[in-house]
Amino acid sequence: MKIAWFCIPAHGHTNPTLGLVKTLTDAGHQVFYFSFEDFRKKIERAGATFVSCDGYDFEMEAKENADRVGKDKVFATELLVSSTLALDEMTSRMIGEIKPDVIVSDSVAFWGKLAAMKHDVPYVSSTTTFAFNKYSAKYMQESAWDIARMLVVMPRINKQLKRLRENGYPVRSILEIVQNDNDTNTIVYTSKYFQPCSETFSDRYHFIGPSIRPITEPVEKTAEKTVYISMGTVNQNREFYRNCIHALADTGWQVIISMGTNTDHFDDLPDNIQVHESVDQMAVLSIADAFITHCGMNSASEGLYFGVPLVLFPQTPEQDAVAKRTEELGAGVRLQSISEEDVLDALTKVIHEPQYKQEAERISESFKACGGAAEAKEFLESL
C-alpha cells in the first residue's frame, strides 16, 4: 500500500503520527510524508520517504506561523488556500508519480484533504487533538458554526475559495474543508473515554490512544513526592516559574522544571529543584506525583498515561478543551492564578487527595486498552 501523508510544521502534530508511520513501514507499506525540513530526520527514522514542502511561494509563511494555525482558525483558513496553491504543482505531480492508495492528512493540514478531493483519492483525517463536531464543540470557546460565520463575512475567503475552484479543487463551502463529518474516516490519538461526546462519532472514527515514546534516559526519584512542571516550548512567563520555585522551595518535594527555549537563568536554586531546557518527559512522568501543564494534548495525555494527576494551566482554546475534560473526569484541578499560594494549593490538593490519582489511573487504563498503531494500520489496510 502507498500512503501520501500531509502534516503542518508543528511537533505536536507530527510526533503522535510517527509510531503509526513506523508500524506501517515495518509492515512493508510505503509512506510518503509531506512536511518541512526541520522534521526530516524524525520522519525518516520512522521509515517514511520525506517529501519537502520547503521553498514554495507561500503568500503567508506556514512555518513561522505554525503555532498560530492551532489557535486562530480564521488565519488557518486563509493560510490553507495560499499553502494549497503554492504546493499545488508539486503535490499534483507527486501524487501522479506515487499513485497513493490513500491520503492521510493532519486535521488542520487542509491542503492534504483538498489534494484528496482534487485527485479523488480515499482520505483519512489524522486528528492529534480531540475529534470535533457540533457536540464536542461545547468544550471549545467557539463552535464550528461560529467559525463559519466569521469566515463567511471575510471577502478574502470567498475570493480564495474561487481561486481553489479555478485550480481544480471541487470546493463548495468553507465548512466542507474545515469540518469532518461522520462519513470521514478519522484516526484520533486518544481513547473514547477521554474524548468528549465520543458516543456521537460514527465507527469511522478510530480512537487508537496516545502515542507514547519509550523512556530513553531514566530519572532517579530522590524524594517521596516528585513534581514536574512544563509549559511547552514557547511559554516565556518568568514570573510563573519564579513563583513555582519560591512556593516549592521548602516542601521537600523533588521538583523538575522544563523551560523549553526560555533563556532565563535562576541563580541559587534550592537543592530540591532542578531547572532544565528539556528533559526526557516520559522518564520524568514515570516517577511524577503531579504535573503542572499547559494542557497541550500530547503533554496532558502523556501525564495521564502514567497515571499522574494534573494541575491545569491552559493557554489556548484547544488547551482549555483538554483542561475542561480532565476536570470533568476528576483527574486534575485548574490553577486559579500564578501566585505562590495558588501553585502550592493546587499541587497539595492533587498530591494528597487520592481521588485525583485514582481518576488519572482510570484514564490511563482507557489509553492502554486502545488498539494503538496496530488498529490504525488494519483500518488503513481495509480502505
Structure characterization notes:
With 383 residues, the protein is of the alpha/beta class. It folds into two domains: 2-128 and 134-179, 3-Layer(aba) Sandwich (Rossmann fold); 226-368, Glycogen Phosphorylase B (Rossmann fold). The protein is 43% helix and 15% strand. It has 15 helices and 13 strands. It has a seven-stranded parallel β-sheet with strand order 3-2-1-4-5-6-7, with helices on both faces. Strands 10-9-8-11-12-13 form a six-stranded parallel β-sheet, with helices on both faces. Helix 4 (73-98) packs parallel to helix 7. The mean pLDDT is 88.
Summarize the structure.
Helices cover 43% and strands 15% of the residues. With 383 residues, it is α/β, with parallel strands linked by helices. Helix 1 crosses helix 15 (372-382) and helix 4 packs across helix 5 (110-119).
Specify the helix fraction band.
Answer: 40-55%
Q: Which series of helices and strands comes N to C?
A: EHEHEHHEHEHHHEEEHEEHEHEHEHHH
Distance between the termini: 10 Å
Number of strands: 13
How many helical elements?
15
